[in-house]
Design brief:
By secondary structure, the chain is mainly alpha-helical. It is built from five helices and no strands. The relative contact order is 0.08.
Length: 138
């Protein structure tokens, strides 16, 4: 409605997103952080209508990226919930130098992916060791 979109476009449970956003808003408000927003509008003439089709395509891409991204709203939601219950949250997700498709068969691409992942794990070794220690204590 207006500039708002149905939460079901990004999550099956929009209530969870709303609660996460409330937490993030409260946290930002306490820190006096200014948050910007995306505005969706109704076109006022044919040229604006044409521009809105291009923007709709971009919105579709944005929604697809959000739903399939290893970072973004899903990670933000998990991080917010962990903060609310005062627990540790780590997202381990190596940023690869190239996109690797699920059906990739090129040995060179797969070896590069494995090497970059191994280097990422080495860089994050202290976090991994602390998580292993926590798991072993429990």
């Amino acid at each position: 409605m207006g500039r708002f979109l149905d939460g079901g476009l990004l999550a099956n449970n929009p209530t969870l997103d709303a609660m996460s956003e409330i937490h993030q808003y409260d946290k930002a408000f306490k820190a006096e952080v200014v948050v910007s927003s995306v505005d969706v509008f109704q076109p006022s003439n044919p040229l604006e209508l044409a521009k809105s089709f291009v923007k709709a395509k971009e919105l579709g891409k944005m929604l697809m990226d959000c739903c399939t991204d290893s970072d973004g709203c899903a990670v933000d939601r998990a991080r917010a919930w962990c903060e609310m219950i005062d627990t540790i949250y780590h997202r381990l997700s190596p940023q690869l130098s190239q996109e690797v498709l699920l059906d990739e068969v090129s040995d060179a691409v797969l070896v590069d992916m494995l090497w970059e992942t191994q280097m990422y794990l080495y860089e994050k070794r202290e976090i991994l060791q602390s998580l292993a220690k926590l798991l072993l204590e429990n």
